Amino acid sequence: SNRLEKLFSELVLFNTKIDDKIELASYGAGGAKYYTSENLDKVDIKGVELNLDYELNNNTDLNFNLTYLNTEDKSTNKELIFTPDLSASLGLNYKILPNVATNLSLRYIGEQYSNSQNTTKTDDYTLVDLGVNYDVNKTLTLYSGIDNIFDKKIEEELGTNVGAYYFAGARINF
């Protein structure tokens, strides 16, 4: 990682070797398609992640994340399913008050295989999210937001097509 005045940067390289990974596997097609969990004997996950954060002023910063993955089930020499090669996000954070901050983010998820044979890929997609955080005190933060504010439809087989997603919660730090 690196900090140069108002710019923070980080580059992460990783090479993960996993024995006995439990993975979702798909079989069949169309209405006969089904999913089950399988044990993958050996899996390699290699990748690189770039993180940038730039402070525009005392109240505003921009952040960017880019992740590239190269995955492989060593017993089949196929890529893992539901694991995009490329994903990215771009965010804008703005402090309205010293204890109230908002965030707007754009998330990109690249194409990914949806079957174990690596013959079918899902479409890539981009979502927009909006959130707010309120620091009640040093211990308690309240937060809320809307993920996928434009209600973008995502392929059902990804299992994440809930449309616009509203959330709220509390975070306690101690």
Notes on the protein architecture:
0% of the residues lie in helices and 63% in strands. It has no helices and 9 strands. It has strands at 2-4, 7-27, 34-55, 60-73, 86-97, 100-109, 125-135, 140-147, 165-172. The mean pLDDT is 90.
The percentage helix is under 10%
Radius of gyration: 19 Å
Quote the beta fraction: over 45%
Class by SSE composition = mainly beta
Q: What ranges have pLDDT less than 50 throughout 5 or more consecutive residues?
A: none
Strand order of the largest sheet: 1-2-3-4-5-6-7-8-9
Provide mean pLDDT, rounded. 90
Order of helices and strands: EEEEEEEEE
Distance between the termini: 27 Å
Query: Number of DSSP helices?
Result: 0
Q: Quick one: biggest sheet?
A: 9 strands, antiparallel
DSSP summary, beta strand count: 9
Choose one word for the global shape.
Answer: globular
Features:
174 residues; mainly beta; 9-stranded antiparallel β-sheet
Topology:
Elements: E1 2-4, E2 7-27, E3 34-55, E4 60-73, E5 86-97, E6 100-109, E7 125-135, E8 140-147, E9 165-172
Antiparallel strand pairs: 1-2, 2-3, 3-4, 4-5, 5-6, 6-7, 7-8, 8-9
